[in-house]
Design brief:
The complex is a heterodimer of chains A (about 325) and B (about 240). Chain A is mainly alpha-helical and about 325 residues long. Helices cover about 75% and strands about 0% of the residues of chain A. Chain A has one domain: ABC transporter involved in vitamin B12 uptake, BtuC. The two termini of chain A are about 25 Å apart. Chain B has about 240 residues and is α/β, with parallel strands linked by helices. Chain B has 2 domains: about 160 residues, P-loop containing nucleotide triphosphate hydrolases (Rossmann fold), CATH 3.40.50; about 60 residues, no CATH class. Chain B: InterPro entries: AAA+_ATPase, ABC_AA/LPS_Transport, ABC_transporter-like_ATP-bd, BCA_ABC_TP_C, P-loop_NTPase.
Amino acid sequence: MIQTTSSPSRAPLVALVVVGAILLLLPLVIADRPFELRMATLVLLFATMGQGWNVLGGYGGQISIGHGLYFGLGAYTSAVLSVKFGVNPWLGLPLAILVPTLYAVAIGIPCFRLRGHYFVIATLVVAESMFQVFTVWDWVGAAIGLELPVRPDGWLNFQFHRDKTPYYYLALGLLAVVTFGIWRMGQSRLGFLLRAVRDDEEALRSLGFSPQVYKSIAMAISAAILGAAGVFHTQYVLFVDPFSVLGLHLSVLVALFAILGGAGTLFGPILGAAILVPLSEYSRVAFSGSGRNVDLLIYGFLIMVIAVYRPDGVIGWLSRSAGSRRRAGASMKGQGQ
Amino acid sequence: MAATLSVRQVSRSFGGLQAVNSVSLDVAAGEILGIIGPNGAGKSTLFNLIAGQLRTDSGTVEFEGRPVTGLATEALVRCGLAKTFQTSRPFGTMTFLENVMVAALLRVPGIATARRIALEQLETVGLAHRADVPAAWASTGQRKRLEIARALATQPRMLLLDEPFGGVDLPSVDALIDLLQAVRSRGITLMVIEHNLEAVHRLVDRLIAMHLGEVIVSGSPEQVTRDLRVVQAYLGASEAAHA
C-alpha cells in the first residue's frame, strides 16, 4: 500500500526501461520454442487481467472473486460476433468490451450496497450463475462451446497460425496500454477517491462524495480491461467454452495474482502473474496428465503463506526495507509536535 | 437576522426510546452555538439528524432557507453543511496532505489545485509540518485538527463539530479555541457539541442545554451553566437539592 502513496523517484523508471526492453526482445530468444512463447504470452494476458482486477479490488478495495465473468463475457461476445455474424474481430472489439462493462455496472448497483464479505460472496454468486447459464445456452454452444472459423494468417484477421509471436506482442501492447492507463488513473482525481473509498467510505461520504459512484466507475474500468483480455484469449485459442473462460478458477486466479503481487500497487499484478503462471505451467509438465490440480494445490499453499506472512504481497515485501527507512525519516520530522 | 440553520420540531426515537423529542432551534449566520447535556441527552442524535446520517421521524430542517430534511450526508456537504465525526476517521493509507486533498477535490477538479488548497488548510490548522506523514500516525489532537482541515477544504458555510475538544490535552485547548474563532471570522457558522464546559464557555456565543431528548435551556453560557435545571440534569435531582 505504501507503493501507491510514495512520490515518484528515478529507480522505478530505470527498472521499467530495463524490464520493457527485456519483454520487447524476449521473442528473439523464444520464438522457436512454442512452450515458452505460449507461457510468456499467458503471463502477459494474466498480468493484464490482474491489472483490471486491481482497479476495483486493489485501488478501490472491493474484493471480487467473480471477475472471470467479465473476461468470459468479452471472450464470448467476440466469439459470437465472429461465428454467428462473421464480424471481423477488430470491428467486434468495441462491443466485446462494452458488453462486460455495461453488465458490470448493472450488477454493481445492487452488489455495491453490500459491504465486506457479503460483497465478495455476491460477486462469486453472480459469476457462478452466469457460468451455469452458459453451460445450458444452446445458441452459444452450451457446454461444448464455440469454435472460431480459421481465417488467413495476418493482423487483419487477428489470427496467426504459423508464427505465434504477434500474439505475444499484442498481449504485451495490451498490458502496456492498460498499465499506463492505471498509472495515470492512480495519480488522478479518480485514483485519490478510490483509495479513499478503500480506506473509509463513511469518511468519504462526510466529505460530500458518493462512494457508489466511484465504485461503479472502477467496476466499469475493471470489467472493460477484463473484457479486452477475453477478446484476446478468444482470438488466441480460437475457441470458447464455459469452463475455459467463465470457470471459477479464473476468477480466483485473477484475484490471487494481484493479491500475491501486491494489491493496490501498479506492478503487483504483473509480478504476481510472472511468478504464478510459470509455476502452474511447469508443475503441469512435471506432473503431466494428473498434474492439472497440482498448480491449484500450490496456489492454495501460497494463499495461506500470503495471508499469514505478507498481506501486502511481494511488492510490499520488496519495498519493506525502503519503506521503513522512509517512515523512520518521516517520524523524526514529526517529532517536533 | 436570517437563520443559517433552522430546526423545527425534529423528533427521532429508537424503539421505545425518544432520543430527540420535538427539538427546535435556530443558528444565526456567523454564530457559534454550543450544545451541552449529559450522556444520552440526544446531542449526537440531533447532529446526525441535521447532518443526514439519521432519518427524522418528524420535523423539518432548513439550511440557508432551503428545506434539507432527509437529504443524504454527501448532498448536504455539497450544499455547504459539513460535519466532523466524534471519533475522527482519517484515510489510513494516505498522508495528512492527501487526506485534505480528497476533501478539496469536491470543489476543484485538478490534483494540483487540490494540493494547493489542502496545504493552505493544513497551515490553517497548524499541521503543515505533518503534510507528508501518514495520517495513521496522527495523535488524537492532530486527528481532530486534520478532521477540521478536511471539513474546511469542502468549503462549508456551516460546520457541525461533534466534541472537538474530546481527548485534546490542556495546552492544546487554547489553540483549538483560537482556531475555531478564526474559522468563524471567515464567515463559517459553527455548531458545537462539547462536554468540556470550560472550553465551551470561552468559545461559544450562545449555549443550549439538552436533557432526555429535549432542549431545556437556551441562552448565554453564563445563564445556561448556572441554570438550576441544567445542574439538576447533570447531577441528578437529589444531589442538586443538596448543592
